[in-house]
Amino acid sequence: MMKYVKKLAFLTACSLAVQAHAGEKMTVLLDWFVNPDHAAIIVAQQKGYFKQNGLEVELVEPADPSMPPKLVAAGQADIAVDYQPQLQLQVDQGLPLVRFGTLVPTPLNSLIVLKNGSVKNIADLKGKKIGYSVSGFEDALLNTMLANSGVSAKDVELVNVNWSLSPSLISGQVDAIIGGFRNFELNQMQLEKQEGKAFFVEDFGVPVYEELILVAHKDKANDAKFSAFLTSLEQATQYLKQSPDDA
After folding, report:
1. In this structure, what CATH number is given to the domain that contains residue 93?
2. pLDDT tens digit string along 104-137?
3. Tens digits of per-residue pLDDT, 29-77?
4. Is the separation of the CB atoms in 169 and 114 below 8 Å?
5. CA-CA-CA-CA torsion for 230, 235, 241, 242, nearest 10 degrees?
6. Residue 8, class by beta-carbon neighbours within 10 Å (0-12 exposed, 13-18 middle, 19+ buried)?
7. What is the residue range of 81's domain?
8. Are residues 40 and 120 located together in one domain of the fold?
């Protein structure tokens, strides 16, 4: 009997080792091209934390930044990096999505203009063009900020510039952009020797929210692999805190 138990334990251990080595495949759709906001995900991949937790993760940059949640809802990917305000609209539209984790817990979204341009405050945007990349929640954020400054949504023209947020502003295609992150687009503009000025959403009537969240199909979110994914991100976050220079 003891010999049988030992043999069973050995076979079980071998089976678990094979599973851990093979890894459970997961496809993660980013909200944007890779940038510092994805640091925990990238570090978890590079330092092998996903593999340690039995996952084989593929990271995919979207061709269209509005598509990742829709693809997860359609079962074509496991996880999407999404925006908290956008999720509420998506669920209201019937998409079977649920949030299972947070990537960035504070607002990053901003209304950005050229520092040396004609727009000195939000009220100056009346009659101007504003570029955006993801319709829905960015419209809602903008409308709240405009109303807070005495401007109607009808007083501005919205232009879908897709990926080209800061380029469209620098080139003069638009007078302002909504959806630019204060820790990315402003730095990107500095590299182009163009100073930007940001109006933070939370300073103009928008309640504080979590900028980047992780969503999955609501029928699959209880799968153990999602817990393993969060464990990997926690390990990566601790590494970033303890070794920021190495990261």
Report:
1. 3.40.190.10
2. 999 999 999 999 999 999 999 999 999 998 877 8
3. 999 999 999 999 999 999 999 999 999 999 999 988 889 999 999 999 9
4. yes
5. 170
6. exposed
7. 24-105+210-243
8. no
